[in-house]
Protein: MD-2-related lipid-recognition domain-containing protein
Organism: Homalodisca liturata
Amino acid sequence: MWTGTIITVLFISIGAIADAKSITISNARLVSSRGGSCRQENGINRCSVIRGETATFQGVLNIDGGDSHAGIELFQVTLEFTREQFGEVVSDAKTCQRVGGDVVIRGDCDVTSIAEGSYNIVPFSVKVPDVDDSITTNFKALGKATWSDGTTTQEIEIGRCRIDIE
């Protein structure tokens, strides 16, 4: 009886791991409208932006539906600077998908479901804080999803970049 219980629990755990779903944003970056640049440092983009400007958040949304190849029925994004005084740029913004596959944050397209795969994110405007002195901070994307199989992913960090505000 004891052995049977251990084996059952083991199979359930392996099954849960094998069907792990994930959402990430690769190549996340905040691109300056005035000619700033981004470079890779330890797998994370480090971008230069100018204080007070409107930059754009860009990247590639990667959806892995696990063994069931589930897609997403509803995907919401929060974008924020990691320094509390700068706060959130957008919170729980719904996404949608344009014809051709690009994903839009707070878009006006009708398709909210997104199949497993990788999709460019349409550049999203972000007002850079107008600070007195140059600083370095992080900009991150958090995401939460309702999957086509009925499961949900609680809000987790899905991408980040390092920002030099000059």
The chain has one domain: 21-165. The chain has a mean pLDDT of 88.
